[in-house]
Amino acid sequence: MLSLKLERRGEVSRKFSAAVSGFFLLAGLFFASIIFELLGVSAVETFSRVVSVFTSQSSLMQAILRGLPIGFAALGLCLAFKMNFWNIGAEGQMYMGMTAATGVVLLHAYYGYIPDFLVFPAMVAAGFLAGGLYCTLPAFLKVKFGVNEILPTLMLNYIAMHFVNFLITGPWRDPRGFGFPLSIIFPPYARMETFLGHANFIGLPAAITAAALIFGLLQKTSIGFEMRVLGQNFEAARYAGVKIGRTLLTGSMVAGGLAGIGGLVIVSGMLGRLRPGAPAGYGYTAIIIAFLAFLNPWLAVPAAIFFGGLLVAGDVIQATLNLPFAAVQIFQSTIFLMIIVGEFFKRYKIRVVR
Amino acid sequence: MEKKAGISRRKFLAVSSGVAAGSVAAGVVAGGLAGYFIGQSQAPAAVTRTVTAPAGTVTTTVTAPPKRLKVGYVYVGPVGDYGWTFAHDQGRKWADARYRNVDSFYIESVPEAQALGAIESLVNQGADLVITTSFGYMDATAEAAARHPGKYFVHISGYRSGAAGNAPQNMSSAFAEFYQLYYLNGLAAGAVSQTGVVGYVAAFPIPEVVRHINAFVLGANYSYKKRTGRNIRAFVNWIFAWFDPGKAREAAVALIEQSNADVLAFTEDTPTTLQVAEEYTTRRNRRTWSFSHYNDMSGYGKNSHLTGQIVNWGPIYLDFYRMVGTGSWQSVDIWTRIGDYMPYRWRRPAEKSTAGEVDGTLQLPPVHPSVPSEWQLEIKRRYEEMKELLFEPFSVEGNLGEPIRDQRGQVRIKGTERADWKMLWEMDWFVEYVESELPR
User: How many domains does chain B have?
Assistant: First the structure.
């Protein structure tokens, strides 16, 4: 009698890990090329267009810009998931971050508070605080009443979405916008590209700094150690005297705050105004990216930029090869699926037992 | 047992990781080269032209005009949505078939936050003209127009253009306006409604949608009140999405079940509402009607398709192709109604009406035979009058001689007034027959 058995691997070498990743990446490209060939386009040409996204300067800048909000949110999620805090609410935290940032702009534009040069720093602070506080709400429920965080974080996304809809169809609507649900256009000093010419030039260093800070927080501080312990084993952490409430609230504040910064990047770096549906699902994408980065803060931003590149590549192959969007989605998801399957095989091996 | 393969695991790993790294590297090189050549072939070719002038020989280098016009489209949904985006794609094909010397391509399902990137991709592909087909792309289109002064941009359904003075001169805006058709749809709705309640599944509370709701409800009230002496009652459900069949379905079912509506109009990009009406008509024994929106959806509701609003974007696109192709661009703000882009626009007798055919950019789909013949004729008469703008739905005449009041009882249109462009464009109030609140 043959049967398959899953066995956990111990530590694996970097070489092995790279080999598995490479193999499954190739497998993903192979499956994708079957699909492209079935659709009647040359797979080689398609892949060369995809690669050209990462080699040409203008499309690489686009890839980075699209990756940045996802990257910030994914960084926060790395931290949250390390604590075993299953935050599905990055989308809502992005909404809150962009709402607070827009609020600062409106406070400035409508009532003249805050000098010009302080507007952007105030937006950053407000975005971080709003996203963070919105994330501490489910953390508080978890600490105080033992409520599982998954459902509250998910449902808070919808509350945030409708809150933005309310603001933007009501009090925050552009008075000269013909009644369309949009805020006013941000002044230049509230836009990221005014500082160094492109939103990436301050966004990317900021993202890398944030990654370093998260890494430092997790690896070099005692509260970071407590967070990791909390993630490994809740009961052990409690037994060891970890202040669970304080740790969870701090961690969720930082995690949500980073998602809020992601929201700020969307309104300040990309759109230049608040509009309904602005996060465009980036908060959910960030969950995939966090896992793609193996919850490693250093990898979160590159993974997000890689995904941003795939988004741009999707546009390029649609425009040049007349492929439908669905084919692009299949391509993107095949690659991701294969990477995740590869992760599985790094941790487990399948043994045939007889 | 383990050695059977004849190659040690370590060796296999070393080889396979080498192969993996090597092929990734090869892919990068090949892709980079291909990308380089693609970039090369797009560079505009410089042509040296020698002109013999009386004073001597002058050699000038000019940029060759594009041999074929290249047009890129940005779509908000999939081309297979059988609604908004499908109609744009049909318009693209219509214009391409007539202009001939054009290559067009598109990117579909572009979220609004990614619009600028998509437009940049199209410009990088060499597009001379980029047409963006969702309201949410407006700012991105204006930004791209500012970045690429040598290219031309058309935005559909917005209010920014060089002509309007709030965008660069290489940006135009265009829209095919439906409120007259919605009024005619309302006439049909009021003529068949048994419950006296009409419902509306609406995407976003923007002036366009509010205007359409009001026109539809005014029309429904006109015919229903003339038939029964009672006012129509109307309910609106907002779904806050352009393409979300699930939410549209919930909204439509709620309008039937909770508000007792038996005619459902909608402004969102799927045929879901019509499908729900068909389901209630055929399987739940509850006569319910709905419409086509943006293209012919009658196949989704053979028994419940009353009439609708169909667009033909083609003539607008063709107009822009010609402007760019002949170098005669000027920034315009196009807003088409019944009669526009028709070879002639004089009205015909109701019996010989062209209602039901494609007229210019619009089409009123054939009205279901369940609508009594006197109302069929009335719809055609109004249609013909609107070709010459002799009749305006937002007028006292369009409301059975009564002034048009909003929900709070305030008179908005009285006497001989007609809604002007500004009122239509900024409409943020519901007519009194609507019982739902307008989110604000």
Answer: 2
